[in-house]
Amino acid sequence: MNKKVIITGATGMVGKGVLLECLDHESIGEVLVIGRNSIGMDHPKLKELTHEDFLDFSKVKDQLIGYDGCFFCMGISAAGLKEAEYKKITYDFTLSMAKTLFELNPDMTFSYVSGQGTDSTEKGRMMWARVKGKTENDLLMLGFRQAFMFRPGAIIPLRGIKSRTKSYQFMYDYFMWLVKLIKFLSPNSVVNTTQIGLAMINSMLNGYDKKILIPRDIIKLSKM
Question: Taking a C-beta distance cutoff of 8 angstroms, is the pair 150, 73 a contact?
Fold first, then answer.
C-alpha cells in the first residue's frame, strides 16, 4: 500500500516501538519522524524533521503534506510539573500539530498515546487526567477521517527499548517480574510496545469500531 506516516516521540519508549514496527511493515513506505533531536537511525524508509517549536509549524507545512497517518507518541510525566507547564506540552503542542495536519491532510488517521485513567469529563481531581481528557476530546472533535485515543496502561518494552523516564526504567529493571505476573493473571491488562505499534498501523489500514482504545482493544487490533 506504500502508506506514509508521521511519528512524534520516537526517542521515547512507545514512540520507538511504533517506529520499529512501521519500518518493518510492508504497508508503510515512508516514515517521517518529527522531534527536537535526531533519533540517530538510518533506514531507507526513514526521514527526519528536526523542529524546535511545537506551537508553530508554519515554516515546515510544506514538508507535512501527503501523509496517511500520524502516530503522536510524544508525552511527558506530570510528576513535579504545574498544570500550566504540563498542559503546554501535553495539550498545546499536540493540538497545534494536529490542527496543522488536519488542514493539510484531513483524510489522515490521527492516533494519540494517552493513558489509562484519563478523565473524559475534564472535571476530575487528577490534573494530568483532566489535561489528557481535554486533549482526547478536542482531537476527536477536529474532524479527521479517523482518530484513535490509545490508553495502554502498563507496557512491556520489547526489542531492546528502554524508557527515557528514569522512574519508569527503574520499575522495568527491578519489577518487570511483577508486570509479567499481572499479564499472566490478566492477559488483556498489559500490552507491549510491538502490540501498540501494530495496533496503530492496523487502525490506519483497517479502522476500528471504538475511538478510545484500552489494552484489550490494543491487543485485538494488533492482530487484525
Answer: no
The CA distances from residue 146 to 8, 42, 129, in Å, are 18, 30, 23
The residues facing 69 across adjacent strands are 5, 109
66 pLDDT band, cuts 50/70/90, is very high
The Cα 218–Cα 196 span in angstroms is 6
What residue type is 46 in one-letter code?
Answer: L
CA–CA distance from 209 to each of 2, 165, 205 (Å)?
24, 33, 13
pLDDT tops 60 at residue 99:
yes
At 133, list the grid cell: 481528557
CATH 3.40.50.720 is held by the domain 3-222: yes
* Order of strands, sheet of 69-72, starting from the edge strand that comes earlier in the sequence: 46-50, 28-35, 3-8, 69-72, 109-113, 146-150, 212-213
